[in-house]
Specification:
Elements: H1 19-25, H2 27-30, E1 49-50, H3 51-64, H4 70-77, H5 81-97, E2 101-104, E3 125-128, H6 130-148, E4 156-162, E5 169-173, H7 184-195, E6 209-217, E7 219-226, H8 239-256, E8 261-267, E9 271-274, H9 291-303, E10 309-316, E11 322-324, E12 330-332, H10 339-354, E13 357-363, H11 368-381, E14 384-387, H12 393-403
Parallel strand pairs: 7-8, 7-10, 10-13, 13-14
Antiparallel strand pairs: 1-3, 2-3, 4-6, 5-6, 8-9, 11-12
Helix pairs in contact: 3-5, 6-8, 6-12, 8-12, 9-10, 10-11
């Protein structure tokens, strides 16, 4: 008689690995600057990441992070090439199932692992999803606020009062246009003082008293992000941390300041607005620094916003070195601080001030000439200058956005 032998399913030791922890460990890879020389024709096009590269990044993350316990590390150390390929394929599938990445399969492919070895899947692309970007923004924001010692977030407080929902001041008489947030006790007391104690109580218009609450303003922000070549020079990637901060700021605004707006502008030889979901694919290039064009585009975007406050947050590490001329040609001076370029750029700063737009600058370099330029910008627009590093950029930017206190960090 035919028999069937059953045994306990042991499972893959990495099945217990959380995909959110893995995505967090892969954050630098998923948001990498990825500068590629235009003279290297064999390289992949910017923004196109292959599945093979993702597998290599996962393998490196598993080896260099604290994601695995001792049993899982031992399993990977003794895994054959075939087992390792299967593990990487499974982790990639799980990332896709969780909605953190999207795998673009060519028509001929049957599955992520189909068609042979991992190295043969060069035509399979992937991209990070909106959910993945949102998750990375949340994790970055949580880490930044943890470093700041903040337990909770509010909105932008001012010294003015309005008739809102949250009570924080004495009641006052109702005026036409106020939110009808009645102070019942004060209203009845006012009527009794006027007519005396009797039933029914007659209420008149002048008896109405409303609660006062702190007036909380709304803010329109344009994040001006330098993506010139200098952002990855000198052995340091400054662009990837800036991208992570942009994601964190977006998450902060969406969840804690719903009345605020955030728009993202990249500036290099010229400037363009990009949707935030495309931030992960943005890369630096062999570009100059056209700060003036970035400021001009930011002003046009802010002019469309009906907010109490308007501000430009500029992240840069280079001196202005390019200028868009009236005929559309790009004037460039690689040495920076060209009198023509600086003069035209400062003219835009004056226009920002006249329009009531605040400019806060976050510098990722300590070049003396750049410091002088940024100090001049700060003096004109009465903003703030933060001379910081890629490691501390996020903390200073978040703290500035939440507190709006006047201070400079040198």
């Amino acid at each position: 008689m035919k028999s069937v032998k059953y045994q306990r399913y042991q499972g893959d030791p990495l099945d217990e690995l959380g995909m959110e922890q893995l995505a967090d460990a892969l954050a630098d890879y998923l948001l990498q600057s990825g500068f590629q020389s235009p003279y290297d024709a064999w390289q992949e096009l910017p923004g196109e990441q292959t599945l093979e590269e993702l597998h290599q990044a996962i393998q490196q993350a598993l080896a260099n992070s604290d994601l695995l316990d001792e049993q899982q590390r031992e399993f990977l150390a003794n895994a054959s090439p075939e087992q390792m390929a299967a593990v990487l394929n499974r982790l990639t599938e799980r990332l896709a199932e969780e909605g953190l990445i999207r795998v673009d399969m060519p028509p001929a492919s049957r599955s992520i692992g189909g068609g042979g070895s991992v190295g043969g899947e060069r035509q399979v692309r992937f991209e990070i999803t909106d959910k993945g970007l949102d998750f990375l923004g949340f994790r970055t924001l949580r880490d930044l606020l943890g470093g700041l010692g903040k337990a909770s977030l509010g909105r932008h407080d001012t010294r003015d009062f309005a008739t809102g929902v949250e009570t924080s001041g004495a009641s006052r008489a109702y005026e036409f246009g106020d939110t009808l947030n009645l102070d019942i006790s004060a209203t009845i007391s006012h009527a009794l003082r006027r007519e005396g104690l009797h039933v029914p109580i007659g209420l008149e218009y002048q008896d109405l008293m409303v609660h006062q609450a702190e007036y909380q303003s709304s803010c329109a922000t344009v994040l001006l992000l330098d993506c010139s070549h200098s952002m990855i020079l000198y052995g340091e990637d400054r662009f990837t941390p800036a991208k992570r901060v942009a994601l964190a700021l977006s998450h902060l605004i969406r969840t804690q300041y719903p009345g605020d707006s955030l728009q993202l502008v990249l500036f290099h030889d010229s400037a363009e607005e990009i949707p935030l979901p495309q931030l992960a694919q943005v890369q630096v290039g062999p570009h100059y620094t056209n700060t003036r064009e970035g400021l001009r585009l930011a002003q046009r975007l802010l002019a469309r916003q009906r907010k109490d406050m308007k501000q430009i947050v500029m992240i840069t590490d280079g001196k202005p070195s390019a200028l868009t001329l009236e005929d559309g040609r790009i004037y460039k001076n690689a040495f920076g601080l060209d009198p023509l370029v600086v003069g035209k750029t400062l003219e835009e700063v004056h226009r920002c001030r006249r329009s009531g737009i605040l400019i806060n600058t976050f510098m990722l370099a300590s070049d003396y000439g750049l410091i002088q330029f940024v100090q001049k910008v700060t003096q004109i627009c009465r903003g703030k200058a933060y001379f910081t590093t890629p490691q501390t950029l996020g903390q200073y930017l978040m703290l500035d956005y939440m507190t709006h206190k006047s201070r400079s960090i040198h």
